[in-house]
Write a structure and sequence with these properties.
Blueprint (H helix, E strand, L loop, with lengths): L1 H17 L4 H36 L3 H29 L4 H18 L1 H15 L8 E4 L2 E8 L3 E5 L5 E5 L6 E3 L5 E9 L5 H17 L12 E8 L4 E9 L4 H18 L31 H18 L3 H20 L1
Helix pairs in contact: 1-2, 1-3, 2-3, 6-7, 8-9
């Protein structure tokens, strides 16, 4: 390419000298030719890349959409460098010493900008090994989001809040790709201890069959539901673990709909989904009976006045706050007993 530009420029320069238009005009024409050839080559390359890019978008080829902008930048840099070399040569400047000096300068810059070099090298490895693509959902460290842009030096993620995180490749140590080739949605379904786990598993399989027969969700599901069985025993629930395989980035849509149908199916069959309960224990007497509890409903004003008054009463009488509360509770219980009598 360098030779083509150089020959074209020299040819027109030779013709300009031949018709005696002067050395300055010859150089000017050569520079114009260099600019025109550079522009034509770049437009041709750009047209080819744009055509391939549009086709890849129609085919949903994320791999090509990721690499094409990087190839464009590399070619633009190479063509610009070649054009500068030709221009300097036409101006009568010996470019050999410049190239040698540029090599030394590049080494110096490499030592001084090791972080930048590390970003580029890591970016090349990650991109050309097809670790991530534009449109993937990934996690880099504590950052999680959709890949929107990839360059040789950095990657941009947009999270659910709409925030864009720009991360240099040099800081990337572990890449977790949640949408590579296919995706999984993991279920941890808790049911009450009294429920029949076999019945619960059958309900899950029925929901899976309904989902795969649904025209809106069936094409998103790649394989039937995989039920691992009873996974663990929690404090208030028996946990059944399962997972479903979907197309990339569709696991959340399928999983949310699956959860909605689980709730409806469990309600229809009276299968209990446990939730945290709080049990108050008031003790037990020697005769096996529990003392009565006096529960008083107070508004916020009464509650704050009562909370402010009790410490004052306790300090004057020398009785602790806990003792005052216990006496109140006992008094309430006695009054309740007398009322019952």
């Amino acid at each position: 390419m360098y030779a083509v530009i150089r020959v074209c420029a020299s040819y027109l320069g030779y013709n300009a000298d031949k018709i005696e238009l002067g050395g300055m005009l010859s150089t000017t024409l050569s520079l114009v030719v260099v600019a025109l050839v550079f522009a034509l080559i770049w437009e041709g390359v750009n047209f080819i890349l744009e055509t391939l890019m549009s086709r890849s978008e129609k085919l949903n080829n994320s791999r090509f959409q990721t690499i094409t902008p990087i190839i464009r930048n590399i070619l633009l840099f190479a063509l610009s460098l070649l054009s500068i070399m030709v221009v300097l040569s036409e101006l009568g400047i010996n470019i050999v010493p410049l190239l040698a000096g540029a090599g030394v300068l590049g080494i110096a810059i490499g030592f001084g900008a090791q972080t930048l070099v590390k970003d580029f090298l890591t970016g090349l490895v990650i991109i050309f090994e097809d670790v991530i693509q534009i449109g993937d959902v990934i996690q880099l460290g504590d950052k999680f989001g959709l890949v929107e842009k990839i360059t040789l030096r950095k990657i941009q993620l947009r999270d659910l809040d709409g925030k864009v995180h720009t991360i240099p490749f040099g800081e990337v140590t572990i890449v977790s790709n949640l949408t590579k080739d296919y995706s999984f949605y993991l279920f941890d379904i808790g049911v009450a201890y009294r429920e029949n786990t076999d019945e619960v598993i059958e309900v899950l399989k029925e929901i899976d069959e309904e989902m795969r027969a649904d025209p809106d969700f069936g094409e998103l599901i790649l394989e039937p539901l995989e039920v691992f069985g009873v996974d663990k025993f929690d404090d208030s629930a028996v946990v059944i673990k399962a997972r479903i395989k979907t197309k990339p980035i569709q696991q959340w849509n399928v999983g949310r709909e699956f959860n909605r149908r689980i709730k409806h199916a469990f309600d229809a069959r009276n299968i209990e989904i446990p939730f945290p309960h709080t049990t108050l224990y008031f003790g037990e007497g020697k005769d096996g009976t529990s003392p009565a509890a006096n529960v008083r409903m107070m508004n916020k004003g009464q509650a704050s006045n009562d909370a402010a008054t009790r410490p004052q009463v306790a300090s004057k009488t020398g009785i602790s706050r806990s003792a005052v509360q216990d006496d109140d509770l006992s008094a309430g219980a006695d009054s309740s007993d007398s009322g019952d009598n």
